[in-house]
Amino acid sequence: MTPHRQTRPPLKHAAASQMLGAMLAGGLVWLLFPALVGQPLALAGIQGLCAALVSHLLRGPVWWLPIHLGFMPLAVLALGLGLPSWVWLAGFAVLLLVFWRTDRSRVPLYLTNAVASEAVAGLIPDEPVSVVDLGCGDGGLLRRLARARPDCRFVGFEHAPLTWAWAWLGCRGLPNIEIRFGDFWSHPLGGYALVYAFLSPVPMQRLWLKARAEMKPDALLVSNSFTVPDIEPESTVEVADARQTRLYCYRPAG
């Protein structure tokens, strides 16, 4: 399988945008707005604008722009609360356990809602089959599918420790669900009639190559919201939910 080609490391890109934004903001304030030197929140706002501009010029993802805009102003506001240092350490630990190394996987925590879960259930063959969720989050989709199809076997993968524990605990009462901790990339997909993924645009090409090499000809790959680059889906399911979800259906080995 061809290795996934990574673009510029996201943390380095974000750090560069913030640092260059700070330098640009410092120059602007020194030249044009010297009266703002004693106003931390105003300085942080200018830095956020500059960081977002730099990120845009460096072709960072569009969804990073509000993060760059708000990062420094929120940091200034948070420091003004006077909270003890352990609070910030605890908050960082919780975020790490929930999201884990999103900077490497490039996959945020996306949860499949109940309406989309019903649409996925409608794609499962009538006969008893095995279904896998590649990045199952809190296990909500698997719980709904397992209750709707007790004749089927469901497997979920989750690499974030706290999120995996959440899914594992929530699914313990359902005997037809197995929640596995870790990376799904080394797990073979040949035993599943339906492979479900709600990831991000970044790993879709790699997932397609893995699916083509391992899935059976009649097996279905279902991607929530994100298409495989340059590959036309066999069909698209329009979900009548608030976010107007689309399920892109492929038969990689068909």
Question: What is the secondary structure topology, with strand pairs?
Answer:
Elements: H1 10-32, H2 40-57, H3 65-79, H4 85-99, H5 102-105, H6 114-121, E1 130-134, H7 140-148, E2 153-158, H8 161-170, E3 177-181, E4 194-197, H9 204-214, E5 220-224, E6 235-238, E7 246-250
Parallel strand pairs: 1-2, 1-4, 2-3, 4-5
Antiparallel strand pairs: 5-7, 6-7
Properties at a glance:
single chain; 254 residues; alpha/beta; disordered N terminus
Quickly describe the structure.
The chain has 254 residues and is an alpha/beta fold. The protein has helices at 10-32, 40-57, 65-79, 85-99, 102-105, 114-121, 140-148, 161-170, 204-214, and strands at 130-134, 153-158, 177-181, 194-197, 220-224, 235-238, 246-250. Helix content is 44%, strand content 13%.
